[in-house]
Amino acid sequence: MKIEDNKVVDQYGAVLAEYIRGEWHTKDPAVLEFVKGSEEVKVRARNEKGHYVKDDPSTPDVNEAWTTKVVKKVSGKS
Predict the structure, then answer these.
(1) pLDDT at 77 over 60
(2) How many domains does one find in the chain?
(3) Which of 7, 8, 51, 62 is deepest in the core (most CB within 10 A)?
(4) For 23-63, what is each residue's pLDDT tens digit?
């Protein structure tokens, strides 16, 4: 399993869980254990071509240049 674009997918690309409105949605408790060590990180928004998205000045209450992404915490080997 791995986390891609706020979704947990298996090795075949099937979606096992989705991160919607601040919480994980899945039917499999093993997937919830897998995502327990994940966190939200603020990153620069990108378009389909991979270029940075700029902030739209006509919407002062929303910053389109930044978005949140869910990533798995990495722990060091002991």
Answers:
(1) no
(2) 1
(3) 8
(4) 778 888 888 777 776 777 778 888 889 898 888 889 888 88
Any domain includes 49: yes
74, HSE (Cβ side, Cα atoms, 13 Å): 4
Residues 72/8, Cβ–Cβ less than 8 Å = no
The pLDDT, as a whole number, for residue 72 is 65
Structure tokens, 37: 């060590």
Contact 3, 71 (CB under 8 A): yes
C-alpha gyration radius of the chain = 15
C-alpha angle 26-27-30 in degrees, rounded to nearest 5: 85
Q: How distant, in Å, are the alpha carbons of 50, 68, 72 from that of 35?
A: 26, 16, 7
Residue range of the domain that includes 43: 2-72
DSSP 40: E
